What does this fold into?
Amino acid sequence: MYAIFRTPHGRPGQNTGPFGQGQLQCEACHGPGDDHAGRVRRGQERPPVPHFASSGTGSAEAGNAQCLACHGSDVGFGWHDAAHNFEDLACVDCHRLHDPFDPVRQADSQADVCYECHQPTRTEMHKAFAHPVVEDKMACTSCHSPHGDVVGSELVRATVNETCDQCHAEKRGPYLWEHAPVAEDCTTCHSPHGSNQPAMLTQRAPVLCQSCHSQTGHPSVAMDTGGLASGTPSRFLLGESCLNCHSQVHGSNHPSGSKLMR
Ligand code: HEC
Ligand code: HEC
Ligand code: HEC
Ligand code: HEC
Ligand code: HEC
Ligand code: HEC
Ligand code: HEC
Ligand code: HEC
Ligand code: HEC
It folds into this structure.
């Protein structure tokens, strides 16, 4: 219980913290503890510490209000619109306040806290090609903002592409010849967490490409009896498939790169 004094909340010198001068100490978080600390008759159960949905008596909202009284400006601003708020999550569903190493704020233990509720994401992160969260080289918060800091998004940037661009700036362009779906949303072709296709693709080429492009009239069709989508694959579709020729799938800066071939 007193491990709280080894956390940022326990600093007596910090006037804005629970143990600062004029603050309510334990009660800054737990709320009035008179009933809990008061006399209890034999056989009667001691009233629990108020608030905190996960360990106490109150609703998530009431518990959160205790925290937001101090964290209204740093967290509360996004929290108002956060998916986690709409789902009635409590701050303490994620945070362990008496633990000097709050697991959700450590890169190597954060994901496990999230997986308690997001099992499908766990499965994706363990697929053959995935962002290195399992290896602790990244955390969920490399991309996500659990408090919904950016209005209208649970991501650390306003859009998916801006989020990816933080680390994959070379895919951002601007390109002389853009590929429309790339400029629009990286996740039309990539699973953001992980997939069983190389490069975390949602599907392999040619299926991926042909989900949008028809084979009709394609110049390589005439060179092959079967055509692009036939049962006997064209020699042009072996290996890297469409990418054999259209290698610049994210966009091209070559003057004659309009077909994304160079
Ligand atoms: C910054 C907010 C905060 C402060 C300050 C705080 N607590 Fe807590 N306390 C919590 C939360 C949240 C929980 C729920 C469990 C958790 O998060 O670890 C909790 C849980 C507890 C529990 C339940 C048992 C346990 O350890 O999980 C006891 C008892 C307790 N606190 C006593 C105290 C006492 C005594 C003080 C003052 C010395 C204090 N708390 C100060 C937030 C706080
Ligand atoms: C009395 C005001 C007060 C209350 C109540 C309070 N906090 Fe804090 N909290 C602080 C201060 C001050 C810090 C230290 C900030 C710093 O060092 O930059 C802090 C730090 C934190 C941190 C760690 C931030 C860091 O930079 O290390 C977390 C997480 C946090 N609070 C969550 C909570 C939660 C969840 C609750 C409700 C259970 C809560 N706080 C209640 C004032 C408060
Ligand atoms: C879904 C899990 C989750 C919930 C719910 C949650 N937090 Fe957090 N919180 C985190 C994570 C993860 C971090 C670490 C962020 C990082 O490393 O960038 C964090 C960081 C913080 C910090 C440190 C400063 C900052 O913004 O990075 C404070 C303070 C904080 N949370 C307070 C709260 C309060 C108050 C609530 C409830 C209103 C809350 N949190 C609800 C997961 C959560
Ligand atoms: C106590 C359960 C719980 C925990 C812990 C939790 N979440 Fe959530 N989260 C939810 C619920 C419920 C929703 C809304 C329903 C849904 O989309 O699954 C949600 C929604 C989300 C969304 C938005 C999904 C969408 O549809 O837009 C993201 C992103 C997310 N959580 C990430 C995280 C991350 C990252 C963590 C860990 C830091 C975390 N969650 C921890 C319960 C939780
Ligand atoms: C490389 C960036 C990245 C990382 C790392 C990441 N996510 Fe996501 N996540 C995304 C994107 C992008 C989306 C789709 C958001 C959209 O379309 O608005 C998403 C969607 C989600 C959703 C909504 C449901 C779904 O699967 O579409 C949840 C829940 C979620 N992420 C949880 C997590 C958790 C938990 C972790 C850590 C284990 C994590 N994410 C790590 C980028 C990431
Ligand atoms: C915080 C940095 C970061 C962010 C943000 C990020 N990534 Fe990554 N990405 C990485 C790292 C690190 C790797 C692994 C690189 C390696 O293993 O060589 C990776 C790998 C990949 C790969 C596989 C590369 C390969 O060679 O197989 C793809 C595809 C990818 N990311 C797409 C995305 C998309 C789409 C987004 C946005 C939803 C995104 N990334 C956001 C850091 C990031
Ligand atoms: C039209 C589908 C499509 C879209 C949309 C797309 N990619 Fe890709 N991406 C691919 C394909 C196909 C590969 C495999 C390329 C290869 O094997 O040469 C790939 C490979 C990658 C790689 C790993 C190999 C490399 O070239 O570094 C990264 C990283 C990557 N994409 C990031 C992104 C980002 C970031 C976005 C959004 C800005 C994005 N992709 C949008 C199809 C797409
Ligand atoms: C989500 C749909 C979508 C997917 C998936 C997709 N594309 Fe595209 N692609 C488009 C759109 C839209 C355009 C722009 C068409 C236009 O301007 O007429 C385009 C343009 C192109 C062009 C230039 C066409 C021209 O007329 O100049 C080539 C080449 C191309 N895509 C190849 C590919 C390849 C190869 C893949 C698979 C790795 C792929 N595309 C996946 C939607 C997609
Ligand atoms: C053998 C090389 C080759 C392969 C393999 C190939 N293409 Fe092409 N593609 C071309 C050439 C050449 C053009 C026409 C370029 C021009 O007119 O300047 C073209 C043009 C296109 C265009 C622009 C529209 C059009 O018909 O002119 C699209 C879209 C396209 N290819 C998609 C694909 C897709 C999807 C695949 C895989 C299913 C694929 N290509 C495989 C060589 C190839």
